[in-house]
Structure formats: structure tokens, C-alpha cells
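Aim 2, interim progress. The first record below pairs a target sequence with its C-alpha cells.
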Amino acid sequence: MEIALHQAYQELPGKDDRPDFKMVYEYPLSGTPPMMTHIFENASGVRMVAAKGAPEAMLSVCMLSNVEKESILKPVNEFTKKGYRVLGVGQSSFSANQFPETQQQIEFRFVGLIAFYDPAKHNIRSVLESFYRAGIQIKIITGDNAATT
């Protein structure tokens, strides 16, 4: 997904500022639901704090009303029912030099949603049917949204 995000960004018009920024801190994928945060700075000290993760994770760290949360969850549900993997994206103006213990302690502004479509392999139906005929029970273990799965 990270590669797809960078490829999509490269296709946007305008100057690509990524080469001017270096990652100075990273919160790895964590939490339930999960999210991750990267903190970048350029040589002038300009900071970018960006987070992505499960939409519910991002909603929990953004100061949003219940109405705003519901309006965000509606398209999340529509995308996941169609099999899309959905991420929420947030941005923060966090400027302190002492980073909090967890990324969930940072207040973010909700930026939007990203939907990825990763279709099942063309032969998955016949593979699963052969498992069923052989008496093999199938269990799915995933971090994806239940509707997407």
C-alpha cells in the first residue's frame, strides 16, 4: 500500500517536496484498531506529521463531532462492502521536540480516506471449492475490515 500511495502522489501536479524532508520519528503500526505515524522535517525545521490507519483509529485521534464521524463512516462502509481496503489519513501540527509515548496522544486533523482495490486472484473460487470438497475447513485471519474480508 505504501508503494501505491507514493506512486499516486507522483502523479499529482506540482512540486514534489518529499526529497527535502527526512523522517525524524516513526510510530509503527500499533493500536486497536491500528494506525501508524511518520514525522518528517526539512532543513529549515518545517515539520510534517502524517498518520494513516484504520478509519476508526483515525476518527479516535481527531476532534470530530458525532455527525462528522457518521458522515465519514458512511463511505467507509460503502467501500468495504465492495471489497475495498480503506485507510483514514490524518495530519497534525504537533511541534514539540518531546514526542509522546504513543501516537494516540497526538491530536490530528482528519484529512480523508484512501480506498485500495486488491481483487481476489482469478482462480480463488476453484481453489476454495477444492478445499471444501476435500473437507478442509477454511479460516480467515486478517487485519482488514470484516466487510472487506
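The second target in this work package is listed in the same format:
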Amino acid sequence: MKTTLRRQWWVVTDLDGTLMDHRYDWAPALGTIRLLQRRGIPVIPCTSKTAEEVRRFREQTGLRDPFIVENGGAIHGENADGSPWQQRLGPSWQELRPQLSVLARDLGQPLQALDDLSDQDADRLLGLGGEALRQAQRRACSVPFVSPLDAESRRRLQQLAKARQLAVVQGNRLGHLLGADVSKGRALAVLKQRQGASEVAVLALGDSPNDLPLLHAGDRSIVVPGVDGPHPDLQAGLADGRFKLAPAPHALGWSAAVERWLPGLLDDVNQVD
């Protein structure tokens, strides 16, 4: 006898700072990922990472589910014959990259793009070097950059971007320049439509402001805290009960939160001979 879910669920998760710590270690989550795979529940990365980076992660974890990259800039997956497909959802890197210089001029502050960082600076800021850094720098539909430190400059930058029909979202360590309609939440909606899964339920997990559209789109949404607690921009959702808080940072908290919710995901099952 086997169990199958009457209602399909997806686990849609951010990677950096959520499933991974800031040294990119996700090993404590591997057992839970394997458990979800055995249960037939897709694990769908929804991340600021590039497609190259996510493909490497999928190879390491054995995932075969579709995925969302560059903060919702594109969705990727595989056809029944194993051939890859992709769908871009916003402007290209080539269109966006010159706009960062324009925004820096209007802001009156330098905005250093990820692709301009030296190996030394990238290692200091991101813990990346070599081919791992090259994969992070090869963007298709977003421009990560070193954000201004003060909140007022970040607010003004968002206003300037909006006036140019663009968007700036903030991750843990970098800002990201995107098309105006690009977000993780919109990309999830497009992916569900493409997969013929409009009724699928989503367990969403994230840790930073760029995850807010994903968390708002989830049927159940979990904030994974950093070592200093949850990001301040996610506190409102926690306070009013829209989001739940994982019990620990990064992969350990991710695993504990998913396994805590797993019985609820499986309480509507059908026993099949």
C-alpha cells in the first residue's frame, strides 16, 4: 500500500541565507530534502542565484524539479524527454546593466555591480571566488550590486528605479536591479500556470526582503532567521501571523520547520493499494 497526496504541494524555497548559510553550506538539510523526494513533494529553488548555480545545486542534491532564478527573472525546467526549457520574465542583463550607471548618477553615489567586483572584494563580501564567482556573475536578467549602506539612500534608489520602470530589491548582502514586474511571487504564478498546477499548494520559505513576494504567495510561509534573528523587514508578517518562524537559522531551521509542517502537508492523503 502506498500513500499519495490528494492535494499536491510544492516546497518553494530561497537558497542563500535560507536553505544555505552564508558559507553556502546546506548539508544539514539533505535528509529533509531526501524525505520530501520520497514523499513525491517537489523542492523548487526560488533564488537570486543564476541558472548555472542552481543547476550545480540540483546535481548535488539530485533534484529534478523546475526552478526560479535571479529573483524571478526567469523560470527553468526540463521537458519529458529531459531537454531543458527556460522562460525569461523580464528585461535582459544587457538592457539592465547600463541602467545601473544611470541610477548611480541620479542617486549621487557609486553602485558597484557584482560583475565589477575583484576576486578579493567578492571573497570578502560574498565568500565566492574562482568558477563559483564566475557563475554568480554570468547574469541573464538581473544586475546584483553593492547596495548603499543607509536606509534613506536605499529608499531613494527604489524610487529612482520605479521612475524608470525598473525595480530594486534587497537581499542579505546585495541589491538586485530587475524589471518592474519581476518578482519571485510573479515567477511562481507563471511557473504554476506553465506546469498546469494552478491548484497546487505552496510551502514557501525565505529570509530576506526579496523573498517577501514569495512568502506572500505561499499557502504556508516560513521565515528562516539569521544568526541574529529574522530580518526586520519580515517582522510585520511574523507579528500578524501571516508567516511562521523557523526555530533555528539556515539549513537546521529550514529542516526543522519543513518537518514540523510535513504531517500537515500529508494529513489529506489517499491510501491506494
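The two ends are 5 Å apart (CA to CA). This observation will shape the mutagenesis plan for the next reporting period.
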